[in-house]
């Protein structure tokens, strides 16, 4: 009888041991899964694809205007304000045009952080900001002047050249650089 009790105790100890090992393994896996989930972060991917088209070099404000207009919806240029950024390499060859924002008939939102992040992600050395005035008035507003000054200061911090700020209409344009405002 004593032997039988000893076997039962041994069996209970084995069951308890196996029970503890099983829950240790389960809890360890749950903890690993929790840590894995907690450590997941968003992945940032940067890509650039040159489709092999003609490389365009921007040497002056008129060329910049032509580049911008080739990517503008002319059917709404007198209806809705838009802001675009021409991104260029060190040789002023256009890498691409970023459509920053579309606004209403009198304004559009310009977020300097977004301009800088796009320029830095594309390894641009210089940029030109371009926006239209649906009214047809080419004179820069005080808000346009303040924006240009703030953007220039921000670009200087990250060694990015703000070459110009253009205001365009269907017929003409205004260059901050050509008018010594930049």
Q: Share of helix among residues?
A: 40-55%
Percent of residues in beta strands: 15-25%
Low-confidence stretches: 3-8
In CATH terms, the superfamily of the largest domain is: Cytidine Deaminase, domain 2
- Strand order within the widest sheet? 2-1-3-4-5
Overall mean pLDDT: 79
One letter per element, helices H and strands E, the order comes to: HHEEHEHEE
What features would you describe in this structure?
By secondary structure, this protein is of the alpha+beta class. It is 40% helix and 19% strand. The longest helix has 38 residues. 23% of the residues are buried.
Question: What is the topological layout?
Answer:
Layout: H1 2-39, H2 61-69, E1 82-88, E2 94-102, H3 112-121, E3 126-132, H4 142-157, E4 161-168, E5 173-175
Parallel strand pairs: 3-4
Antiparallel strand pairs: 1-2, 1-3, 4-5
Key attributes of the depicted protein:
single chain, 182 residues, alpha+beta, Cytidine Deaminase, domain 2, 2 domains, five-stranded mixed beta sheet, 4 helices, globular, disordered N terminus
What is the structure about, briefly put?
This protein has 182 residues and is α+β, with helices and mostly antiparallel strands. The chain is built from four helices and five strands. It is globular and about 75 Å long.
